[in-house]
Design goal:
This protein is mainly α and about 130 residues long. Helix content is about 60%, strand content about 5%. It contains 3 helices and 2 strands; from the N terminus they run H-H-H-E-E. Helix 1 (about 5-35) packs antiparallel against helix 2.
């Protein structure tokens, strides 16, 4: 685990796998007490069916188009979705708020990121400073 990029990739995969499994536990805790185990089974079946359809569609896209084209379309879709959800144009740096950013009335509890990040750094939405290499 000497390579930092490999470690970051590995930790991301582990976090994703744990999150996927935790979703089932949380879903059970939320659905079973109110709706019963039959509804929980139905929710899991629908989730599995949707995943199967989307995986097949994703495989077709991955086979037919170049990787860079698929990534460009995914980035474009993300930008459009960000604009639709946030109500404003995304900044060039996804972690930094645009100048003069104020809390959005459509999103309760949203607030600008406090304080400057300092030279060579960016603030994440949680307030942590992320340094970038020059």
């Amino acid at each position: 685990m000497r390579d930092r990029r490999y470690l970051a990739s590995w930790l991301g995969q582990v976090t994703s796998a744990v999150g996927n499994q935790l979703t089932v536990v949380v879903l059970a805790a939320l659905v079973v007490p109110d709706r019963g185990p039959g509804t929980f089974g139905l929710v899991l079946a629908v989730e599995s069916a949707v995943m199967a359809v989307l995986l097949l569609a994703g495989a077709v896209v991955a086979d037919r188009y170049s990787r860079s084209f698929v990534m460009a379309i995914a980035d474009l879709r993300r930008r459009v979705e960000d604009r639709a959800v946030s109500g404003h144009r995304p900044s060039s740096c996804c972690w930094c708020p645009p100048a003069g950013h104020s809390p959005s009335p459509e999103r309760p509890g949203s607030s600008p990121v406090p304080g400057p990040a300092g030279p060579g750094g960016h603030r994440s939405p949680t307030g942590a400073v992320r340094h970038t290499s020059p």
